[in-house]
Sequence to fold (322 residues):
Amino acid sequence: MIRASRTWAPANLALVKYWGKRDAVRNLPATSSLSATLGLFGSEAAILPADADVLEVQGDPRRAIRVLQAARDLTGLRDPLRVVVRNTVPTAAGLASSASSMAALALALSRALGFEDDPLWVARLARLGSGSAVRSLLGGFVEWVAGIAPDGSDCQAREAFPAEHLPLAIRIAVTTDAPKPVSSGDAMERCRLTSPCYGDFVRDNPAAMEQGRWALADRDLARLGSVAEEQSLRLHEVLRAASPPIDMLLPASRDVIDVVLRMRDRGVPCFFTIDAGPSVAVFVEEAHADAVGSALAAIPGVIRVLEDRVAVEGARFLAEAP
Ligand code: PMV
Fold:
């Protein structure tokens, strides 16, 4: 018996990056990662009983189909479902819309199928849609440990620090609404197989995690920024060194980086991070957020600046679907 359910899940931005898989079938990451959960931008999902399967999903439907199939396999569910997933971030533009949409979908399925009290069930399902989705289930600063167990039992996410530990505003310079030319899954695999600097990126991940954790523990924005910026630039180096090369940045992305560096030289406490796309997110102390937002909006090629902050809460249920 299916219960109608509706959920919302936030997007998240990686400070230490997940890039590459140690097990493609179970979707287990090769690297641990550290992220910040957003407050306003994310995805909504609804599961409703239906006469035949209907999938109304923004973004790549294969991810939702994978999650749905896993839920069917785990529960023996045969009933048809109507599945709705909508994003409030630009779909597939490197702003983690796959993370929020798959977290929202997994949580919605958990209530529809009676597993809502089992966070590991929800995380496992979310991970099959998008690795980084497990981080969107939680609020604040989230650590997702890659683990080494072949069955993925030690691959888990936890809140490393609550949002109020280091209150930060976020301004996201959106440089395109177009879907990225190569999906993150395909790009990861190409990097693993062909990029000469991929091995070093994975090797250095435990040190980056350590630095990120300590910077957060010390509430040290400058050190957190240096880890996040280094991780972003290295991720894009790994991508460009792949064969054939993948260049996800646009001229405007590089201009945003320059503006952030110049503002920081003038004493503005801020840093940038870039995931697998051309948009650039800037973390900044609240008192300087408006100044950063205006500077980003003035850059040619920045089509919009999104305003958000590191959020307390992760994915949650909404009032029951109609
Ligand atoms: O979870 P996916 O398959 O959308 O991959 C996310 C990869 C990055 O955003 C680039 C890094 C990360 O840790 O989120």
Observations:
- Residues 221-240 form the longest helix (20 residues).
- Residues 14, 17-19, 33, 96, 98-99, 130-132, 184-185, 275-276 surround PMV (CB under 6 Å).
- The radius of gyration is 19 Å.
